[in-house]
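ARCHIVE CARD
Drawer: 12
Card no.: 0347
Subject: one protein chain, sequence and derived structure
Cross-reference: see card 0346
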Amino acid sequence: MRKTGYVFCLVMFAVCAFAKEPEDKSWSKAVNGIRAKITMRERTVLNGSRIIAVYLNLKNISGGLYPLHIHWKQSGLSLKVVDADGHEFPKVTAMDYSGAMPFDFDLVLPLDGFLSFNLSLSGLGIPKDKAAVLDLGDDDCWIIDKAAGKKYFLKATLTIPRSKDHGHIRYWYGTIDIPKAEIPLK
């Protein structure tokens, strides 16, 4: 009887230790121990236009003993806006951009940790009465007119190249196709 109790405990431990989280389609598939998703919310209204804040969410599911480091470069994130049929919506062109661009930096994701940070910048001039303004830097800006009934989505691909060995520090590298996220329009 005692042996059966130990076996039962071991089986329950194994089931709990390897139980999967419920599938959430807003997260990407895992790549080298990281999952990602995009979330958005209205940050403010300026000049009658809704300014949308865009967040990158990262989750460390690597199961390693050490945190994962990511050498972040804004240029490692490829972005596009598409409509419900998958047709690409054009970026803003021929504009003066007066905002600062972020420097490269290291992100640290602890074991089973989650990190969310705002990708939005503020160097784009704000036109009057638009449904959404997304400003993610001088090369990634979109202005969506008031379009009743239309839906638009932000798609992203994160690519971080392999970096040199840093001893015991684990630097993440890879390419993650992040599922599209609906842009909040009114």
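Annotation on reverse: The CA atoms of residues 114 and 184 lie 23 Å apart. The longest helix spans residues 2-17.
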